[in-house]
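Much of our argument rests on the idea that a fold can be written as discrete symbols. The record that follows shows the chain in one-letter code together with its fold in token form.
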Amino acid sequence: MLTITHINYIRDLYYSQGKNYTQIIEMTGRNYRTVKKYIDKEDFNEKKHKAKRPNTTDALRPIIREWLEEDKARHHKQRHTAKRIFDRLKEEYPNLLQVGERRIRDIVKEERRKTYNEDEAFLKLEHPGGEAQVDFGTFEAYEDGVLKKFYELILSFPKSNAGFVQVTRSQTREALLEGLKEIFAFLGYVPLVIWFDQMSSAALRKRDKNGQVQTADFLLRFANHYGFQVKFCNPNSGHEKGNVENKVGTIRRNFFVPEPKIDNLEAFNQELLEKCEKKNQENHYQEKRPINEIFEEEKKLMKSFNRIPFDAARYELRKVNKYGLVSFEGSNYSANPKYIGQNVTLRIMANHIIICSKGLEKKISKHRRFFEKGQESIRHIDFIDMVKLRPRALKYSGIYSLLPESWQKYLQIQDKETLKEAFNLLKEILLEEDLDYADKVLKESFKYERQDPEALRISYKRLKENSDLYQGKLSLTKDLPYLDTDINQYDSFLGGFKI
């Protein structure tokens, strides 16, 4: 089976360079059936997802990179050597250092090359119609009442000056690919070529065994699936992607000032695409005719959007710890307690993490993805059934401590008969509400000096009914029938009797 690099080469010869089957067979040494198979192929999803195990050096790279960045401001004779970096790691981060000096030397060499931009050069950009540039920008917006940092993913078309945006919570590869997919789907077309910046956070490039820079396999699969060619800008050459950089600022000023409020990110992104389409009705700064008119001409040079869904998620293996939690990028996510001590597979997406069984046969739980370390997402409902079976034995365990504190105290005073019923009620509440609401139910019931589970259930139902009424979920004019009475009907019953 060919690698994605070989497949990309065959498709590039056919679609970009105009070679015929005979020429491709001669140039690649592949037989006719193999060449035809990959030229005709439309679905480039991986059939089997091999979850990646965490690399023991991942946590060291940001530290090494920071030290090398600091070296730029130092005298060249006082900069870190690879040996000094190894010694510092041994002194300051002994818990993270799980590899030897030889491996650290290799990492320092790789990171130094990135830091000082010792990369190969690429051809200067030219922008015929049907090509696009992509880049990230930053802005702030309110979510859940808190001012947060977001990213704007921009796809711009230099020929027509059309631009489209999607908001993401990070600059990860998952955010990049999912954002591009949404823009492609909205347009119904895909540019022939997309120019990328040096997006290190998205890991779009890698080095082969000879040190040569290559496009990462996942990006090649994505590009072949949707039918575009990947090209990279030169390092430190902002002028080569001036159109998208200008578009980043233009969209920020027009759509994100003042700071917007984001209640639903998917709906917000759909509205943004519609706003972009409306803004593209403005005249082109040089041609003095509508941008969308020029863009429609550009579409004739593009490819139709491939409707076969592409899975842009990343897959990694993790072990469920004794508390029923899985750690990823410095944050914890709860899994079902029955998987404690077992390996599970994380399906990592732009905004969510789905915990699955090791072989992806079963979905265990789904969480919103965090991008700040030290966060914790707990689905307490995952733990209730297990705690319910052996509440006394687990009272002092980490699992029991994950329950709301008020409910821990309440459950401790229940006898054997009412304990199971109390757990069932807690599960019922958490299926529809959250922990704060469960605590509210307890306090409401205690007002009436009733603490048995049945009293709690009555309090819960009363709170739910009041909430629906006060929040306008129950409308008297809409939910109750309106009776229009005609009093003339009574006259007919009385035989026209009049007083």
The chain has five domains: 1-41, 61-115, 121-304, 314-378, 382-470. The CA atoms of residues 51 and 316 lie 4 Å apart.
